[in-house]
Design brief:
By secondary structure, the protein is an alpha+beta fold. It contains nine helices and 24 strands. The strands form five sheets. The chain has an eight-stranded mixed β-sheet, with no helix packed on it. Strands 2-1-11-12-13-18-15 form a seven-stranded antiparallel β-sheet, with no helix packed on it. The chain has a four-stranded mixed β-sheet with strand order 19-20-21-22, covered by helices on one side. Helix 6 packs antiparallel against helix 9 and helix 7 crosses helix 8. The longest helix has 18 residues.
Length: 472
């Protein structure tokens, strides 16, 4: 854990041994539990500034239907149904999938060709496609865990009593075939069949729980747009807590939390979740999801992740970690990324939410949190060498500047344009872009429109320049 962590429990991005890892392409450098990943096949890609070959812009997924059966030996047998649209004529298309054995692929009910090179599953339908199409992939095997360049694990993570999926940035393809880019959001239905005695958490609303022949099927529905990396399942022996809370506009929000019994009841942490949702509604506007909850398990990865609706915590989280991950439901999940190079928009806003929570609960003010962060990094600190909107390398996705300098940028902006305009900016950002994806330049334009100021030089200094910005 890095020394810059402000609280005792590490969020996903606070895990690097050094602020900047030596340059290496993440797509080529990630390894599975069985050895180095193969090079990807030729693909249309997305043009992402950090992960250009992961995912594709050839089509737009509308919906994923995942029906997965988990066996006690850790293997799965699954069917993923993908409903998509394309505006171009496609004779073939790629899905992202690593490991696992593909048994059959159909497109619009007809058997399709399927070939694999590295992390790409290339599907060749019986006839070229244009417009809407439906792909069904049947597959089985034991999902693999990815090890990122920073040494952390993602994707399918076996646990002492089951498995948990934490998929940022590209681990979704360890358990279902997908268009593995944050810019292609979709709705999801996820049905998880597990041995009786195990519970199965996922995103969205729990539609049903059915028992049959020694198994239980948990059927989850996510009808808000969700990026593949935010799709989560967690299978294990859990205490399940169901409740609800009334949101600011009067809507009743269902809350379903899953807690490993070894951590106790976690009544305080579950209450902090509700308080953090209320705090989020005060600063960002109405809660964007259809449900909420926490998943607390002994995952063994050393970080939390803002999986949509129901964040996952590797052990008991402290209050600020819950606040951080809950803020992501607005900034990161609802308002998502078009490009991984803008990840500071997720982490800067969520870290700034920690600062605003601290101020609202009687701790140091926003001015004091900013001053403390600025003073803790003198001008010669390597911290300033990595501008948060110009990461340059995917290995830097979760470096400290993504968080702390991102939050400092937002608070410096608050000080520049004033509290009133900043509050309007924050709420407008999460309202106008609800359910969509964004780029940094959109925030700049919105800040200029609301404040009436020219902010080009300000954003250049704080987000793109590898040195410590001057402050008044």
């Amino acid at each position: 854990m890095k020394g810059h962590v402000m609280h005792l429990w590490s969020v996903r991005a606070r895990r690097l041994a050094t602020p900047i890892i030596a340059a290496v392409l993440l797509a080529a450098s990630l390894t599975t539990g069985t050895g180095p990943a193969q090079a990807g096949s030729a693909s249309t890609g997305t043009g992402d500034s950090l992960l250009p070959d992961v995912g594709t812009s050839a089509y737009d997924v509308q919906h994923y239907g995942i029906d997965l059966t988990y066996a006690a030996d850790g293997s799965i047998r699954a069917r993923t149904t993908i409903t998509a649209q394309t505006s171009r004529r496609l004779s073939s298309f790629d899905l992202d999938l690593v490991g696992l054995t593909v048994d059959r692929v159909t497109v619009d009910g007809r058997t399709a060709g399927a070939s694999r090179i590295g992390e790409k599953l290339t599907v060749t339908p019986a006839h070229p496609l244009k417009g809407g199409f439906r792909t069904v992939v049947d597959y089985h095997g034991t999902p693999q865990t990815y090890t990122d360049p920073d040494g952390s694990s993602e994707g399918w993570i076996p646990t002492p009593d089951g498995a948990t999926v934490l998929a940022e940035p590209i681990g979704a393809m360890t358990w279902f075939p997908d268009n593995n880019t944050p810019r292609d959001k979709a709705t999801f239905d996820i049905a998880l069949t597990v041995p009786q005695g195990l519970e199965a958490a996922s995103n969205g609303v729990l539609d049903s729980r059915r028992h049959h022949a020694g198994t239980t099927t948990w059927s989850w529905r996510q009808d808000r747009p969700m990026a593949p990396y935010l799709a989560m399942i967690s299978i294990g022996q859990y205490q399940v807590f169901t409740s609800s809370m009334r949101l600011h506009g009067g809507r009743r929000l269902p809350i379903i939390s899953f807690v490993d019994p070894t951590f106790g009841l976690l009544a305080h942490e579950r209450q902090v979740l509700e308080d953090a949702i209320r705090h989020g509604e005060r600063i960002y506007g109405r809660y964007p999801g259809t449900s909420a909850g926490i998943v607390v398990e002994d995952v063994g990865v050393g970080y939390a992740l803002e999986t949509q609706d129901r964040a996952v915590y590797d052990g008991t989280p402290d209050d600020l970690t819950v606040v951080h991950e809950t803020a992501h439901q607005w900034v990161g999940d609802s308002v998502g990324l078009t490009d991984w190079g803008d990840i500071w928009l997720n982490e800067g806003f969520a870290t700034h939410a920690e600062w605003s929570w601290t101020a609202a609960t009687g701790g140091q003010s926003l001015d004091e949190s900013f001053a403390e962060a600025y003073a803790s990094h003198p001008a010669n600190d390597p911290f300033w060498e990595l501008p948060p909107a110009d990461l340059g390398d995917p290995a830097n996705l979760f470096a400290e500047p993504t968080y702390t300098r991102g939050a400092m940028t937002l608070d410096a902006l608050r000080q520049r344009i004033g509290d009133r305009d900043f509050a309007e900016l924050r709420r407008t950002w999460t309202t106008v872009h609800r359910g969509g994806t964004v780029r940094t330049r959109q925030l700049l334009r919105l800040a200029e429109r609301i404040s009436g100021q020219d902010l080009d030089a300000f954003f250049q200094a704080w987000l793109y320049t590898p040195e410590r910005p001057a402050i008044d």
